[in-house]
From TrEMBL:
Keywords: Membrane, Transmembrane, Transmembrane helix. Its main location: membrane. It comes from the Eukaryota. It comes from Equus asinus (Donkey). The keyword Cell cycle does not apply. Residues 15-153 form the ABC transporter TMD0 domain. It is a multi-pass membrane protein. GO terms for cellular component: membrane. The chain crosses the membrane at residues 31-49, 70-87, 99-117, 129-150, 162-184. It is found in: Membrane. This is ATP binding cassette subfamily C member 2.
């Protein structure tokens, strides 16, 4: 069933026996994408409930907050672009596997959730979120496998999915930047803007 969803093999142990051991693309695009997203969505209600129960005053907007929000906003735009690419590809004669629709749609919802969580952290005494930092770490670790698979595919001269590869590389770089920004502690370099 998963093979139909991805239009490729989900798991085959012979992939790991080759000199260039690679996980199957279907596994990389399902399990390794959905683990960090599932982590975020499972813990989000707890995170948001705690924040909205808090009675502390709202903190001013900082440059770090704006940088994080801008990068996640760009991730949202890139997910929308990927979904538009899939829709235009599907309007042609090619059949597009369901995973091509599912992942950008999940990412659109996830990036909105991250924007909401980051915004809601302004009401917390502790501005930094271990929960979001762990999400970014999981996302980067799980994305590493698809990153190296795409690099190997491009080095072999297969440029059939160049647009999707470029979008993935840009998103991956933004996620690394956000992880680095998450390691920086919030301090009061506010812009004195209240939203």
């Amino acid at each position: 069933m998963v093979e139909k969803f991805c239009d490729s093999t989900f798991w085959n142990s012979s992939f790991l026996d080759s000199p260039e051991a690679d996980l199957p693309l279907c596994f990389e695009q399902t399990v390794l994408v959905w683990i960090p997203l599932g982590f975020l969505w499972l813990l989000a209600p707890w995170q948001l409930f705690r924040v909205f129960r808090s009675r502390t005053k709202r903190w001013p907007i900082t440059k770090l907050y704006l940088a994080k929000q801008a990068l996640v906003g760009l991730l949202f735009v890139l997910a929308a672009i990927e979904l538009i690419l899939v829709l235009t590809e599907d309007s042609g004669q090619a059949t597009v596997p369901a995973i091509r629709y599912t992942n950008p749609s999940l990412y659109l919802g996830t990036w909105l959730l991250v924007l909401l969580i980051q915004h809601s952290r302004r009401w917390c005494v502790q501005k930094d979120s271990w929960y979001l930092a762990l999400f970014w770490i999981l996302s980067i670790i799980c994305g590493t496998f698809q990153f190296q698979t795409l690099i190997r595919t491009l080095l072999k001269g297969n440029n059939s999915n160049l647009a999707y590869s470029c979008l993935f590389f840009i998103c991956y770089a933004f996620q690394i930047l956000i992880l680095i920004l998450s390691a920086i502690s919030e301090k009061d370099d506010s812009l004195n803007v209240r939203l």
